[in-house]
Specification:
Two copies of one chain form a homodimer.
Chain A: E1 8-14, H1 18-29, E2 33-39, H2 43-51, E3 57-59, H3 62-66, E4 71-74, H4 81-88, E5 97-100, H5 106-112, E6 121-122, E7 125-127, E8 148-151, H6 159-171, E9 175-178, H7 181-207, H8 214-219, H9 226-231, H10 236-245, H11 247-269, H12 273-292
Parallel strand pairs in A: 1-2, 1-4, 2-3, 4-5, 5-6, 8-9
Antiparallel strand pairs in A: 7-8
Family (chains A, B): Belongs to the prephenate/arogenate dehydrogenase family.
Catalytic activity (chains A, B): prephenate + NAD(+) = 3-(4-hydroxyphenyl)pyruvate + CO2 + NADH
Pfam families (chains A, B): PDH_C, PDH_N
Chain lengths: 313, 313
C-alpha cells in the first residue's frame, strides 16, 4: 500500500461472500479503513463472518452497517443491488462513496441510481477476479493481486471520488481501468459471461448423455472436460443474475459463438482439414499473449498438482 | 513398478512428442525395456530426442526402429497411423505387440489393421493424459500417474498380449480400462473432443470480435476466458486429425450441445431465472465428483499460482 493512502473512517461491506470477505481481509491487512462494518441477510452467514473476525461490527440490517460509513460497497448478486440500495439509501452519510462489485454494470446502475440520494458519490466497480468458491470462508488476501478492477463512474460522480476508490483498489493489489458501463458489459460478455454459459452448458450436456455414464465422464475428465467443470461450479445465484442482467450482450456474443461453431461443424462434416488446422493454430497464439500479460500461469495444466488419492473402482 | 514385470527386449517408439517422450522417460525410469528405439520423421526432432537422452537408438526410418522390437507403440497423430503402419509392417518381428496412443480408436484400427501381418498382436491404447504442450521437450515422468489408459483390443489379439500391455501401462502409473473401440470413441467425443472443439471455437470468436479488442480479451481473461485458452493451445495437427477421424461421434455430441445451448439461450431471452438456477446447480455437483475421484485438484482456480510479472499498459 502506498504511504499516502488515507484510510476510510468506516467501510461498510454489504454481502460477505468471496468478494466481500476478500475485501474485508484486504481492508484489515492494508489498514484501508478504521472500522469495517459487515452486513448480510442470513444470520448464519453473519455469525460465520464474525467467527472469522472479518470485521469490527456485524449487522443483520444493511442500513445499520452503512450509517456513518464513508465507503459502502455492495457485494451481493447483481439481481439484489436494487433492493439493497433502496434499503440503505435513507441511512447513507452525505458525501459517502457508494460502490459495488457486480459483473454487470449497466443493469446495476439502472437498479441503484434511482434510489441513491443526490449527496452521495456513486462509482460502480468490478474486480476481474474470483474463484469457483463462494461464501465468507472463500475469501483470501491475494485474490485481487495483479488483477484488473474496472470502474465505470456515472455522470455526477466527482473525479475525486473516482480517484479515491481507485487508490483503494490499487491498495488491494489491483490495477485499475476506467470505461463506460456499456463497453464493460460488452467486454465481459465475451471474456466472462459467454465462457461461463458455455461451461455450464457442456457440463449439462455430458451429465445428460444416455450412452455415456456419469461415472465415465468423471473418470476420463482429465482429457479436457474437467477444465469446464471449474467455471460450471461457480455460484448459481450470482450467475443466474448475471445472465438475466446482461441479457442483450450475452445473447449477441452467443449468436456469434453459434455462427462460428456452425462453420467448424461444417468443416468437420466436409473433412476440411486445412481450415481446422488454421483455426487451431490461430487460437494457440492468444494463450501465449495471456501468459505474457501475467494473466495465467505458463505451467502445463495450469500447474495443477495431483491429489494423493484413493481410486474409485 | 511391480517386482514381477518382465522388461521388453526392445521398445520402439514411433513419434516422440509429448506422449512418446513421456513413455520413453517412463520406460527408462522403471526399466520397462532393455533397449528403447526412437524414430521420428523430422531430423531436427530426432536430434533433439537424442540430446535429451530419451532412447538408446535413434532412427529416421521407422522400419529400422521396429526391427527386433517386441513392443512397438505409434505415438503419431491419428491421421498418420495408416501410412506409418504400412511402412513398418514388413519389418515387424513375429509375435510383437503393436499398439498406439491415439485419441480415436475406430479409425486407428481401420487404418492400421489392413497393413499388419497376421503374426503380430495388435492392441490399440489411449492414455487419458496430456498437457497443452507438445514436442520431445514436453514429456515428463508423472504424466500418466493416476490417469486412466483405455485399451481396445481387437478380435484376434491374444489375452496374453493385452495383459502384457496392461502391466506396461500400470508400470507407467496408469490404471487400465478395457472397452470396445466404438464405446471409446463415443465417450471421448463428449469428455475430450467436444470440449476441445468448444474451446477452440470460443477462443476464435473472441479473437474476431469487432467491438472488443484482443488486448482487452487478454487483460480481462482471468474472468473466465483464460480457462478455455489452455485446451485451445493444444497441438493443431493432433486435433485436426481427431476431428477428421472421429467425425460422426463428434458431430453427434455437438448436435446435443447445440440443442442444450438453444434451451439456455431461450431461458435467458425469456428471463427464466429458476430454470437457469436449476441448471447451474446441477453442474456444480459434477465437479465435486471429479475432485473426489482424484481427477482434478480441489484447490481454487486449479491451484494456479500468479507469475511474478511486468504489467502491460
Amino acid at each position: 500500500m502506498s504511504e499516502s493512502f488515507q484510510p476510510f473512517e468506516r467501510l461498510a461491506l454489504i454481502g460477505i461472500g468471496l468478494i466481500g470477505s476478500s475485501l474485508a481481509i484486504n481492508a484489515r491487512a492494508h489498514s484501508l479503513a478504521k472500522h469495517i462494518a459487515i452486513s448480510t441477510r442470513r444470520a448464519e452467514t453473519l455469525t460465520r463472518a464474525e467467527e472469522l473476525g472479518l470485521g469490527d461490527s456485524f449487522h443483520l440490517q444493511a442500513a445499520d452497517a452503512v450509517k456513518d460509513a464513508d465507503l459502502v460497497i455492495l457485494c451481493v448478486p447483481v439481481g439484489s443491488v436494487g433492493a439493497v440500495t433502496k434499503e440503505i439509501a435513507p441511512a447513507l452519510k452525505s458525501g459517502a462513496i457508494v460502490s459495488d462489485v457486480g459483473s454487470v454494470k449497466g443493469s446495476v446502475i439502472a437498479q441503484m441510481r434511482p434510489h441513491l440520494p443526490e449527496d452521495v458519490e456513486f462509482v460502480p466497480a468490478h474486480p476481474i477476479a474470483g474463484t469457483e468458491q463462494s461464501g465468507p470462508d472463500a475469501g483470501f488476501l491475494e485474490l485481487f493481486e495483479k488483477r484488473w478492477c474496472i470502474l465505470t463512474p456515472v455522470q455526477g460522480a466527482s473525479e475525486a471520488a473516482t480517484e479515491r476508490l481507485k487508490t483503494f483498489w490499487i491498495a488491494c493489489g489491483s490495477d485499475v481501468e476506467i470505461m463506460t458501463a456499456e463497453h464493460h458489459d460488452r467486454v465481459l460478455a465475451i471474456v466472462s459471461h459467454l465462457p461461463h454459459l458455455i461451461a455450464y452448458n457442456i457440463v449439462g450436456t455430458a451429465y445428460d448423455m444416455e450412452e455415456v455414464t456419469q461415472s465415465e465422464v468423471v473418470k476420463y475428465s482429465a482429457s479436457g472436460f474437467r477444465d469446464f467443470t471449474r467455471l460450471a461450479a461457480s455460484d448459481p445465484t450470482m450467475w443466474r443474475d448475471v445472465f438475466l442482467n446482461n441479457r442483450d450482450a450475452t445473447l449477441e456474443v452467443l449468436a456469434r459463438f453459434s455462427e462460428d461453431l456452425s462453420v467448424l461443424q461444417r468443416a468437420i462434416r466436409d473433412g476440411k482439414g486445412d481450415q481446422l488446422f488454421e483455426t487451431f493454430t490461430k487460437t494457440r497464439a492468444i494463450r501465449r499473449e495471456i501468459i505474457e500479460a501475467g494473466q495465467d500461469t505458463p505451467k502445463p495444466n495450469f500447474g495443477r498438482t495431483k491429489p494423493p488419492k484413493k481410486w474409485e473402482g
